[in-house]
Amino acid sequence: MCSHGRTVYLSAHLDDAALSCGGTIAQQSRRGEDPLVVTCFAGVPNYGQLSPFAIGQHEKWGMPADPVSSRRSEDVQAMARLGAQYTHLDFPDCIYRRHEHSGEALYASEAALFGQVHPAEAHLVGKLVSQLQCMLPLADVEIYAPLAIGNHVDHQLLLQAALQLEAQGYHVRFFEDLPYAEEAEQLHRALSGWTCKLVSRTTDLAESELQIKTETIACYKSQLVGLFGTKAQMVNRVRAYALRVGCDGRYGERYWRVSKA
Q1: Would residue 248 count as lying in a domain?
Q2: Which of 162, 164, 155 is nearest to 190 (CA)?
Q3: I want to staple 107 with a disulfide (CB 3.0 to 4.6 A). Which of 21, 28, 112, 197 is the partner?
Q4: CA 247 vs CA 55, 116, 204, 226, 252: distances in Å
Q5: Is residue 198 part of a domain?
């Protein structure tokens, strides 16, 4: 964290920060550093205009009456477990977004979800940057943003926004998007796409901090089965990855920044 301010985590969806950075957030909270998680694509859509693909996603989540509000409630519980502050922005998840003129669903399949950002959304990064600039003072924050491992379109958009913020002078680090980062090839592909040098830093986690992380991830009940299968499988996979990136047999979470050298 910067010596005179707070740490802000840019989360694409209502679980991403906990999945990738939950141990670090818990550690900072214990030290009284007041971390903030900003979930960007947390807007409530018009449920009367859902694509078949979006309805299919809701079915995977257990068909709650108001899926986004339910997911926000899960996040409130999760942030309380981490001891973090939180903000939910009103940009809708990509599964809900439609073409401004034609009304066509922009991301109506699994392939589209992990493909290229739709040309109709060229303006969205600028809107994200403008809102984040209004929220975050330039001198007093260190931002953590996704590397966009796995290529989810919302993670891509948030990465682009974070790079623009960095170009404007913000301090930015990039986190490894779980669960996509579990696949070494996905991680390699994301890192090899950079034209500048990246350097890594690993945050060591105590057993208690890793336990808080897994307990926090378990708060996202609507997502747990789709991401991991069972809670036990989630705990095992999160622990295994933390050991893989940790140093000397310790648990860890790894972050990247652009080298200034």
Answers
A1: yes
A2: 155
A3: 112
A4: 43, 35, 7, 30, 7
A5: yes
Residue 260: band (very low, low, confident or very high) from pLDDT cuts 50, 70, 90: confident
Query: What DSSP character marks residue 118?
Result: P
Burial 73-111 (b: 16+ CB within 10 A, else e): ebbeebbebbbbebebbebbbbbbbbeeeeeebbbeeee
Please state the pTM of the whole predicted model.
0.95
- Domain of 154 in residue numbering reads as 6-258
Q: With respect to residue 72, please indicate whether it lies within any of the assigned structural domains.
A: yes
Residue 1 lies in a domain: no
Q: CATH number of the domain that 222 lies in?
A: 3.40.50.10320
Question: Angle, nearest 10°, between helix axes 231-245 and 207-217?
Answer: 140
Which of 4-13, 96-105, 123-132, 167-176 has the lowest average pLDDT? 4-13
Secondary structure (DSSP) of 62-99: T--SSHHHHHHHHHHHHHHHHT-EEEE-BPBPGGG-B-
Write out pLDDT tens, residues 32-46: 999 999 999 999 999
Domain count, the chain: 1
Query: Encoding tokens for residue 94?
Result: 């990509």
* Residue 1 pLDDT greater than 80, yes or no: no
Confidence of residue 6 (pLDDT cuts 50, 70, 90): confident
Per-residue DSSP letters for 208-259? Answer: HHHHHHHHHHTT-HHHHHHHHSSHHHHHHHHHHHHHHHSSTT-EEEEEEEE-
